[in-house]
Amino acid sequence: MTAPQPEPRINAVALGVILQDNHLLLEPMARWLNVGLMWRPIGGFIEFSELSEDAVVREFKEELNRDVEVVRLLEVTEHLFEFAPDSGPLHGHEVTFLYELRFAPHHEPVDLEPIESFEHDAPASAEHSTAHWLPVSELLAGQHPVYPADLMTKLAPVFE
Fold it and tell me: How far, in Å, are 23, 80, 109, 151, 158 from residue 96 at the CA level?
């Protein structure tokens, strides 16, 4: 399977986290990245002329078919990373806007069951994914690897 090879550039990304009953809604990273099971907040690339706040709301609508509202911007960070998919090394440079979100009225899940999602730009063999509610206690204990690696430290304001 051939993984997408983006042009070298700096990408702007908007990610959102939702805390519910001491669980965070996260999704698995794409399998073609060959990083094993690693979890990340839901979101994606900011489109040209789109504000980051609008991008994270759009991404939740596209991926989960649910409306969300921005609570606050938690942090803007820069990441340099490298993954090793089967097609060869993939180097990245991202500026990430991390938001705390809540579901809009009438879009809240009734329980902590996984939410089926669809990633439009994933390779055909990995189109469907599932967002899961992971216990904060397990995430803080390092039982579930997350990206970025310091995500749980960055989320401290959410847990207050």
Answer: 22, 11, 26, 11, 17
What separation, in Å, do the N-terminal and C-terminal C-alpha atoms of the chain show? 43
Segment 114-124, tens digit of pLDDT: 998 776 554 44
Asked if 70 and 99 touch (Cβ cutoff 8 Å), the reply is yes
What's the rounded Cα separation, in Å, for the pair 97 and 43?
10
- Residue 46 has what DSSP assignment? P
Fold of 11-105+112-155: Nucleoside Triphosphate Pyrophosphohydrolase (3.90.79)
pTM over 0.90: no
Q: Is the peptide bond before 148 cis (omega within 30 degrees of 0)?
A: yes
Cβ-based neighbours of 44, under 8 Å, separated by 6 or more = 13, 14, 55, 59, 62, 63, 121
Question: Could you read off the pLDDT of 65-83 as tens digits, one per residue?
Answer: 999 999 999 999 998 877 6
Task: Measure the CA–CA gap between 42 and 16, rounded to whole angstroms.
Answer: 6
